[in-house]
Specification:
The chain is of the alpha+beta class and about 200 residues long. The chain has 2 domains: about 70 residues, OB fold (Dihydrolipoamide Acetyltransferase, E2P) (Beta Barrel); about 120 residues, no CATH class. Helix content is about 40%, strand content about 20%. The protein contains 6 helices and 5 strands. It has a 5-stranded antiparallel beta sheet with strand order 3-2-1-4-5. The chain starts with a strand and ends in a 6-residue tail after the last helix.
């Protein structure tokens, strides 16, 4: 299993349940055994850790596999140093948690998720990363985001959107307030016109 940890919840005294977005399964849950005081076991992965996992087969009566072992391929801990980046990345995680279990082909969406998380280190306006992810996710799902959302924006907003989508996230000159307005607009469109759910 190869994917990114998007959430964790306590699952009893000795386990933690992790939601992972995987390249072949999409969104799936796994249980991690918490290490004891004298145990050599590693701690469960952090939010946004990129993982390679080996799962134990499902036990009779259990619906969630256990992680036999895992290796961290990449950590995104630097997101925690910038509150604006962390909040935007958390919105992405929530979006994948809401929409990641019904995808026919999750591999391109995992690539998009990794690209978005990598982009925060270069982004001057973190919401641009969010806007690009929402747009690309909807487009790649075959939804008419260009025809039904972008083409019906007021001209000034449509031009700003095209500029934001076509430029690197590191480029200056994007108005954070305008980008915030665009993010809210595409979220409203997705919630009203598609089966995707955005909070």
């Amino acid at each position: 299993m190869s994917g990114i940890a998007l959430s964790s919840d306590p699952a009893g005294d000795r386990f933690v349940r992790i939601q992972i977005f995987d390249q072949s399964l999409g969104l799936s849950a796994a249980l991690f055994r918490l290490p004891g005081k004298r145990s050599g076991q590693s701690a469960p992965p952090d939010l946004f850790d990129d993982l390679e996992c080996q799962l134990n087969p499902l036990r009779a009566g259990s619906s969630i596999p256990f992680v036999a072992e895992y290796q961290k391929a990449r950590s995104y801990r630097e997101l925690a140093r910038n509150p604006a980046h962390f909040l935007s990345a958390s919105e992405i995680a929530r979006f994948y948690l809401n929409n990641g279990s019904h995808l026919l082909d999750p591999q391109p969406r995992l690539k998009l998720l990794r690209t978005a998380l990598d982009s925060f280190s270069r982004s001057l306006v973190p919401k641009v990363v969010l806007l690009k992810l929402y747009f690309c996710f909807a487009r790649d799902e075959g939804l008419p985001v260009r025809e039904s959302w972008l083409c019906y924006l007021p001209q000034v907003l449509a031009e700003e959107t095209r500029r934001a989508l076509s430029r690197p996230v590191s480029e200056e000159g994007l108005d954070p307030n305008r980008i915030e307005e665009l993010v809210e607009s595409i979220k409203l469109w997705m919630n009203a016109e598609t089966e995707l759910r955005v909070e």
